[in-house]
Amino acid sequence: xxxxxxxxxxxxxxxxxxxxxxxxxxxxxxxxxxxxxxxxxxxxxxxxxxxxxxxxxxxxxxxxxxxxxxxxxxxxxxxxxxxxxxxxxxxxxxxxxxxxxxxxxxxxx
Length: 109
What we know:
Layout: E1 7-9, E2 14-22, E3 31-37, E4 42-47, H1 57-67, E5 72-76, E6 79-85, H2 103-106
């Protein structure tokens, strides 16, 4: 049996949320949040309208196709989620305090 290692992102390691895209009704007002982590990781994570990670595979596929995202399974704060992994080339991110974070960064399950 092949072992698969999923990318594991912890909200405490988020240093910036440079952009968020709120989708329309056809995608249940999902949020594609671009996040950057302390180690320089750059991800687009898919959240629902409440700020919880999307786990609906069909919704993820539709959003990904419409917005040109290649989402893959990840673990976010110990829970299943989907994200597009954009690389980690930006190591110069300035840390922002928790007050600068959107609701998705502090959403806990």
